[in-house]
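Weekly structure sync, notes
Attendees: PL (lead), two postdocs, one rotation student
Agenda item 3: pending single-chain targets
PL asked that the sequence for the first pending target be pasted directly into the notes so everyone works from the same version. It is reproduced below exactly as submitted, 228 residues in total.
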Amino acid sequence: MNAAVLIIFVVMLVTLYRQYRHANRYNAEARAQLFDACSSLLQKVQKSQDQAGLPVLQGDYADYKVGLSVVVDTLGWRKVPPMWLLIKVEANTPSIGTLDYIVRPTNNEFYSPSWQWDGVLTIPSAWPQHAILKYQQQPVDLTLLEAHVPTLFADANMKELLLTPQMVRLTYLVKQAERGEYLIMRNAIYENTPIASDVVARLLKQAIAIRQNVEYSDISQIKLKKLG
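Predicted structure, written out during the meeting:
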């Protein structure tokens, strides 16, 4: 290897290293401010990070304890990595049954527990059909969701509705990595604007409406059984 080739090689390595460091700094700054616009939506706000260093925002909203977090999906081969927003609403009263509804499944939804669930339900005709609908042990009464699911999934960014006795969780496509950066450098870099508060507020209201519906319905059924 002559001197000219060696110099070019070293320059390329230095350039790549600087780009890598710049991308990491940019990513860290972008992630740190993801929920900056959403803190004002919640009361008793708590900020933290998960094990991957991604931000977590918790607090109270409409008398429910809620949590906002994100996951970065780099498992899809030849796919620009999406960033999923997870909106979790904890139960005030435990409900009956479980349900996991995922549209456009790709079999790598690592954030979903449904791969461990054996129960499969027929998807109601008014719901998107390119989907999977599963449950564990006992399903949620689907009639309780008829007024919610078609509207919720009319938004093409909606990915998943997860219901358990203890919570409801929505999974929503909130960002996609920059295509050029990922295809060339394999870095999942996302534009650094915070997640819009109006999007989060809308999803929170929908999640809480679902939570209230299953909780109030189950309480009514229990009371009716006691009266009978």
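Discussion points:
- The helical segments are 3-32, 149-152, 179-185, 197-227.
- Residues 217 and 223 are 10 Å apart (CA to CA).
Action: rotation student to compare against the earlier draft before next sync.
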